[in-house]
Amino acid sequence: MQKANGWSKLLLFSSIIAVMLLAACGSEEKEEGNAEGDSGETNYGEEIDYTITGIEPGAGITVATEKAIEEYDSLSGWELEQSSTAAMVTELEEAIASESPIIVTGWNPHWKFAKFDNLKYLEDPKGIYGDVEVIKSLARKGLEKDKPNAYKLIDQFEWSVEDMEGIMYEASESGKEVAEVAKQWVKANPDKVEAWTEGVEDVDGVEFELVSTPWDSERASANVVAEVMRQKGFEVTITPVDVAVMFEAVANGDGDATLAAWMPATHKDFYEKFEDDFEDLGANLEGAKIGLVVPDYMDIDSIEDIQAK
């Protein structure tokens, strides 16, 4: 009987040790999981202070990101740092150089996609940033009657994401002014220029005002078209303004046209506000996109992978 009790005590002691070992392992796994977040994913928020690096206030992508922060539970407690496109790109370059985490408001066409081959858009299940976009040309009402050759050229202008990004990248890398790079591009692409100017007659000093945003992408398109128009005899002025002012200027007739209307999501609110007061000439570029962008060394693929504060 005493022998049986000895075996029972031994079995009981062994069971207690086993339970303690399992508990210890579970605790270690739990601590590891907490370090990475409840889902086991790395919590990048702590490393970047729960901040998305953005661009200018009022930009379409800024407005969309403010909405995303409101709509996504994963972005609860996050903030959007609004500054400038140049500041955003500088922070992105520094982060990539040190392989540090960063989340930026991104769009293409933009030269950063030509320079860095390791950028990716985060999936947007709620569709806050929309799908693939187009950039449209808009003209003031009456332009076709007043300046038919200008109207025809603007209406026939179209190019690709690669065209635009090439100019942006060259200007960034060479340090040359966009206007100079655009002039070189026009000279190197006579076939495209010929298509845009088909049926367009030369004029003698007709004034024309292109209204645009100060984005690198829009500086590229505005300067290319301005150069082509100048070769046809137009005196072209490029006026960079805030997005809201751009739409208002074309709608009021203060500007002749713009090449910078991103649709259907980025500039939706501005477009709908003034759509009865301008003429939509259609897309001059297809395949544009906006959203949250990260380097591909970050182990997240969707906005929902981001962890709330």
Automatic annotation (TrEMBL):
Q: Where is the signal peptide?
A: 1-23
Task: Provide this UniProt record's keywords sorted from A to Z.
Answer: Cell membrane, Membrane, Signal, Transport
Cited PROSITE patterns: PROKAR_LIPOPROTEIN
In which domain of life is the source organism classified? Bacteria
Tell me if Membrane is a UniProt keyword of this record: yes
Q: What is its main location?
A: membrane
**What GO biological process terms does the UniProt entry carry, in alphabetical order?**
choline transport; glycine betaine transport
One Pfam entry name = OpuAC
* Recorded GO CC terms: ATP-binding cassette (ABC) transporter complex
The ABC-type glycine betaine transport system substrate-binding domain is annotated at 47-187, 210-308
Where found in the cell? Cell membrane
Gene Ontology molecular function, alphabetical: amine transmembrane transporter activity; carnitine transmembrane transporter activity
Keyword NAD present in the record's keywords: the answer is no
Query: Which InterPro entries does the annotation name?
Result: ABC_Gly_betaine_transp_sub-bd (IPR007210)
**What is the protein's name according to its record?**
Glycine betaine/proline transport system substrate-binding protein
Which species expresses this protein natively?
Virgibacillus chiguensis
Q: What is the lineage of its organism?
A: Bacteria, Bacillati, Bacillota, Bacilli, Bacillales
